[in-house]
Amino acid sequence: MPVLVASDLDRTLIYSAAALALTMPDARAPRLLCVEVYESRPLSYLTETAAQLLAELGDAAVFVPTTTRTCEQYQRINLPGPAPAYAVCANGGHLLVDGVSDPDWHARVRGRLAAESASLDEVGQHLADTADPAWVRKHRIADDLFAYLVVERELLPEDWVKELAVWAENRGWTVSLQGRKIYAVPKPLTKSAAVREIARRTGAELTLAAGDSLLDADLLLVADRGWQPGHGELADSGWTAPAVSALPERGVLAGERILREFLHTVRRG
Fold first, then answer.
1. What's 153's DSSP letter?
2. To 5 degrees, how large is the angle CA 95–CA 101–CA 102?
3. Taking Cα atoms as reference points, which of 69, 2, 10 lies closest to residue 210?
């Protein structure tokens, strides 16, 4: 039976320049491979060693990129190794099969959102009404499924995020703070549901996962084994789970370590 490996991307496997956490002397820094270009500029990286590990993983398992990125944002990424047959975008709102969103899956997700959580319009209006332009740089709606803000972290009031989380919880939504982005996501919109569907389709009996944020927690909990890096929302909050290993590495070296763990576990069977 195939092994399914579902991994978050940003700040788990791939890293912006600001998130690399290269704390070693410059002469000892790892060689990096750019895997995303945006507006003609390099944007995301992994180490060259991680690139080789990912290529090997793609040959040994069903590798599923599992991201909160929109389909358009995901398709900017050029990962090493075989093109993934499946990918999860928009936090589970889209299940891509050979790069194309499965319309039946998308319709099922939309039905759940309409039945189980407050509307995107209500949440988007609340964000517009309460977020201070002094620290908000962008308001965004992602694939007509969820909302996020791009903020100046040093100006962001901590209490505002906590108050938003309580407000959202009462309406069936989740709030996640990741770097400079504050996400508001309906609770029925989950990575885990899409990954379970891929496991059903592929016949995988073992699922491995990795992620760094609150939006990855459900994915880690449904996996047989999971890993989280030493940075990010989960690490900062002290989140743990029995089958999830908290790694000490931070930044781009955490991505390399996660891929080593994936490959070692797949080869062990």
1. G
2. 75
3. 10
> What Cα–Cα distance (Å) separates residue 51 from each residue in 35, 57, 76?
9, 10, 17
Angle (CA) 86 245 187, round 5°: 55
What is the percent of the chain where pLDDT is above 70?
Answer: 100
pTM tops 0.90:
yes
Residue pair 21/251 in contact (Cβ under 8 Å)? The answer is yes
As given in the structure block, the two tokens for residue 209 are 């996962």
Short-list 35, 67, 65, CA closest to 48: 35
pLDDT tens for 172-213 read 999 999 889 999 999 999 999 999 999 999 999 999 999 999
End-to-end CA distance of the chain: 10
**Burial of 246 per CB tally in 10 Å (0-12, 13-18, 19+):** middle
Pairing of the two strands 100-101 and 94-97:
antiparallel
Instruction: Look at residue 158 in the predicted model and tell me its pLDDT.
Output: 84
- Which of 32, 28, 27 has its CA nearest to residue 16? 32
Phi, psi values for residue 7, rounded to 5°: -130, 135
Average pLDDT over residues 20-43: 97
Per-residue pLDDT tens over the stretch 49-89: 999 999 999 999 999 999 999 999 999 999 999 999 999 99
Q: What is the DSSP secondary-structure string of 172-185?
A: TEEEEEETTEEEEE
Q: How far is CA 249 from the centre of its chain?
A: 18
**Where does residue 256 rank: exposed (0-12), middle (13-18), buried (19+ CB within 10 A)?**
buried
